[in-house]
Amino acid sequence: MPGLAGVAARPLTVLANVLFALLIAAILVPSIRMILHFGALPALAIVIMVGISLALGHLLGGPVPDERAALAIASIARNVGLALFITVLSRVEQGVLPTLLSYVILGAIVAVPYSAWSKRRVARQRYDRREES
What we know:
mainly alpha
């Protein structure tokens, strides 16, 4: 039923995006409260380290833009040891779980603009290549 799929695609996409935004808000509201309780200095350390990891992954990712972006995102996603190190340095009494959750949330917040920029850059390069041929 391709006709029905064509008609339903737009409203279902809008509904899915609205529900996704509500899910993100439901996760971020308590998480932001937890991060603020966690402390400004550890949160700043996480943001700085995520930014450095993202930059290093991008710079060391090689000449292929898709691979650069993948390595940059992977370099921040696999750095749980860094979050544990920050926990030990900051002597957080709440334990390891808030630190790990803070790392994941702050890492995602830092990675979203990079990911959007990277996608636009790759799309622009592909478009330029098509125009040349």
